[in-house]
Amino acid sequence: MDDGSRDPAPESIREWKNRYPLSIVRQPHGGIAAARNRGIQEASGEILVFTDADCRLQPNCVSILGATINAFPQYSCFQLHIVGDCSNTVGRAEELRLTAIQDQTLLPDGRIRYLNTSGFAIRKSSLSSDFVLFDPAARRAEDTLLLANLVKHGELPLFADDCIVQHSISLSFWACLLKDVRKGRIEGRTSELIQRTGVRVTMQNRGRLRMLVSTWKLARDRSIGRTAWAVLVTRQFVERTVTIVSRYLPV
After folding, report:
1. What is the CATH number for 81?
2. Which of 9, 18, 34, 191 is 20 to 30 A away from residue 201, measured at CA?
3. 9 in any annotated domain
4. ∠190-195-124 over CA atoms, to 5°?
5. How far apart are CA 137 and CA 147, in angstroms?
């Protein structure tokens, strides 16, 4: 999906058309949710798999995912295992965050109360022709809103633990903070949409405290370091503060 780019698709993408049934679809800029919804309409495969530009599916991830989907026909959606890139401090902080969240939201039956489109798959057959998977009104955190809607309909994704996707952050710490401010402002609007579903899927203060303690222990036990933990706490504090404040600002 080309969501309003001024440039044609790069040759590095177009060359794949010679090897795979790849279609490149252009549309006026509508945001990530609108682009994904259009991609769903255009896709012809049985399984829809979502990831992000700064993520890399690890070796055999797709084949393992296919085996997992075939082994559990009773589930329609699957959350892949997201990990951080521990080659730098920001990446180690992300590894702490992802590990803690996935550990805390994993249920005993193998489902997970967490949805991250950095690595998410769903059977296209489970979607009705008029069903809109991502709400175009959500400019960010559209995956959390999707989770709320799934919970509302009595469904949670199965956690595909062996299907690993690495989230690699190339930004510096200060660039990350600026991104967190922008992200927090936009997610403040999405949080209102989530509240309207009547489902509580975001972490509450007690859960945030557990996560704080959990990430501190992880940083110590896995030798990730106190600096990475401090980076994580700072980023979480900034984003959370901006998200709360933005709810009360005029649109």
Report:
1. 3.90.550
2. 34
3. no
4. 70
5. 15
On the CB side of 25, CA atoms within 13 Å amount to 14
Q: Does residue 128 surpass a pLDDT of 70?
A: yes
- Answer whether 0.70 is exceeded by the pTM: yes
Measured CA to CA, the distance from residue 207 to residue 203 in angstroms comes to: 6
**Whether pLDDT at 39 is above 70:** yes
Does the residue 218 lie in any domain?
A: yes
The beta strands (E) that lie in the chain are given as 2-3, 26-27, 47-51, 55-57, 77-84, 119-123, 158-167
* pLDDT digit string, tens, across residues 78-100: 999 999 999 999 999 999 999 99
Q: How many domains are contained in the chain?
A: 1
Q: What number of CA atoms fall less than 13 Å from residue 128's CA on the CB side?
A: 2
Other C-beta atoms lying within 10 Å of the C-beta of residue 44: 7
Q: Residue 217: give the domain boundaries.
A: 46-246
**Is pLDDT larger for residue 163 or for residue 182?**
163
What is the crossing angle of helices 89-105 and 226-246, to 10°? Answer: 70
Bridge-based pairing state of the strands 26-27 and 2-3: parallel
